[in-house]
Amino acid sequence: MNQTFPLKSWVKQQANRFAPALFFIGLVLLWELVCQVGKVPNYILPSPSAIITAFFNVEFSRWMTHLWATLRVALMGFVLSIMIAIPLSIGMIRSELMNRVLYPALIVIQSTPVVAVAPLIIVLLGTEDPSRVLITCLITFFPLVVSTTTGMLETPPEMIELSQSLRAPRYRETWQIRIPYAIPHIFSGLRVSITLAIIGAVVAEFVAAEEGLGYFIQFSTSFFKIPQAFAGLIFLSVISLLLFKSVQWTQAWFFPWSLPKKK
Amino acid sequence: MKAIVRLSLLASLIASTSLMAADKVTFQLDWLPGGDKAPVYVGIQQGFFAAEDLEVKIASGRGSTDALTKMATGQADIGTADIGALMAAKAIDNLPVVAVFPYFTKTPHTFITLKSSGITSIKDLKGKKVATSPFTSSNAFLPLVLKQNDLSEKDINLIKANPGALGPMMVSGNVDAVIAWVTNTAAFENQAKNTGKEIIEIPWSASGLSFYSSSLVASERFLKARPDVAKRFIKAFAKSVQFAYNNKEKAGANVHKMVPEVDADTAAIQLNDAYDLVYNEVTTKDGFGNFTTERILKTWKYVAEANGLSEDALDPTTAVNTSLTE
């Protein structure tokens, strides 16, 4: 009797551990079954097996070319948005005037649909990387500004008062008190922004590009290669997921103290 | 002394290299690469442009308006676009772009339907569900082709959907017919074949809606600054068109070599589908690569009507520059 309890507990533990993977595999199998039994044509919903075949029908080097084109733009746009958003937030925290002047402008930028503006940006900046990076940056920087500003505003007032009473210079107040308090918020913003960066790069590729996963998906659709388009889409989602995880890993490595304590 | 000799040698080498360098031309496609866009790829692969001392870079486009904007703003020198879109843009905004060489001398618009639908003519579409993509230039000419067949837009149930969804909608019976370009017929045929069905094509040009369509267009700035380069480009392009349509398999392979995502076979089939748009009764009568004033006026008449513009809004002959092919 004593033997069965640890076994049961082990099975329960493993089931719990692999639950997300099992759920995902079950979903894919169900998808395949529906497509096979229901004889769903590829142009309506390609089966996972058709998507896998389409994936391997494209040369590996082509995948890498498209992946690099999208990743390059997404990462450049993401880095640019960090470079703009964090100093902007600091400026807005330190200057009431700057806050009043910039905040409405930022809201206007955020509420303008980038998809509608993208063709104009291409006309102004050309069809190379700069225009695509700007489009990506426009999509990604707003969540970062909001999260960084919110984080810095949540610094306990007594800490600020203490630093002021010790006559600490403003830059030390910002870098040693406000920014550390804002780290969890900044990383929340970064997690949102990194997935938006991929969306931004794809939007830009839809408007003007010669390579990239967005271009590849658009291309495949225009040639009615739906399983190939799905393969591109899934590849894109995997990349997005990996980038999201890499932001989490960065936070865990460099700022472990900023993570919520595990129960 | 040695240093002076070396420097002068280097300077003369740089000078001779720059003299030898080919003229750079940016070519703007009006859509993504494909079979009907083969000539420019053929020109590069077969060395027709190199023979004219040209180095051509190709940029893909997202429709005629996009291509024309890029040429007008100096991002591209020359390219392909619908002459109708060019005329409308010139009438509205005096766009500094002109057509220099006719490519499709007939309209590519067509209705595609399943053979089993019982639809054999445009008149049969009365009361039927027809799907089209939202941004195709065909939409502007739809009222005209319907009018020529004693119908109006009210007589059909028009649905707009993503271009990729049109074929599936038709094959699955959600719509009775779709509006497409004849260059895409093979793709629709394949989709229908997969479900054991056959399609038929009802080209609009057969019912009288026949005028210039896709053309080689160039920015006025490019023509003014580098007329000799433009002349050489047009000469090589004309050669490329002839080669592409006489050697479809080779042309398909040439496109595939530069854009691996395009299947060589599919590109060859698309060239075959587009053949009648390039070589037809118009080219037989007027000669290959020649614009005629009569057909330009006819084209503008239809374009003006389709876009709700006054015929006086543009002298259509100003939208064309034939001096470079003479």
From TrEMBL, chain A:
A single GO cellular-component term from the record reads: plasma membrane
Provide the protein's localization. Answer: Cell membrane
Query: Which InterPro entries does the record cross-reference, listed alphabetically?
Result: MetI-like, MetI-like_sf
List keywords of the entry alphabetically: Cell membrane, Membrane, Transmembrane, Transmembrane helix, Transport
Q: Does the keyword Membrane apply?
A: yes
Domain (ABC transmembrane type-1) ranges: 67-247
Could you name the domain of life of the organism this protein comes from? Answer: Bacteria
Gene3D superfamilies cross-referenced by the UniProt entry: MetI-like
Membrane topology classification: Multi-pass membrane protein
Transmembrane segments annotated in the record for this chain: 67-90, 102-127, 179-203, 223-244
The answer to keyword Nuclease applying to this record is no
Q: What is the similarity comment for this entry?
A: Belongs to the binding-protein-dependent transport system permease family.
**What PANTHER family does its record include?**
ABC TRANSPORTER PERMEASE PROTEIN HI_0355-RELATED, ALKANE SULFONATE ABC TRANSPORTER-RELATED, MEMBRANE SUBUNIT
Write the protein's name.
ABC transporter permease
Originating species? Marinomonas transparens
Provide the taxonomic classification.
Bacteria, Pseudomonadati, Pseudomonadota, Gammaproteobacteria, Oceanospirillales
UniProtKB/TrEMBL annotation, chain B:
* PANTHER family attached to this UniProt entry: 4-AMINO-5-HYDROXYMETHYL-2-METHYLPYRIMIDINE PHOSPHATE SYNTHASE THI11-RELATED, RIBOFLAVIN-BINDING PROTEIN RIBY
Q: Which Pfam families match?
A: NMT1
Per the database record, which ranges form the SsuA/THI5-like domain?
38-251
UniProt keyword annotations, A-Z: Signal
List GO BP terms, alphabetically.
Answer: thiamine biosynthetic process
- List the SUPFAM superfamilies hit by this protein, alphabetically: Periplasmic binding protein-like II
The scientific name of the source species is Marinomonas transparens
Record InterPro entries: NMT1/THI5, SsuA/THI5
Signal peptide stretch: 1-21
Protein name as it appears in the record: ABC transporter substrate-binding protein
Source taxonomy: Bacteria, Pseudomonadati, Pseudomonadota, Gammaproteobacteria, Oceanospirillales
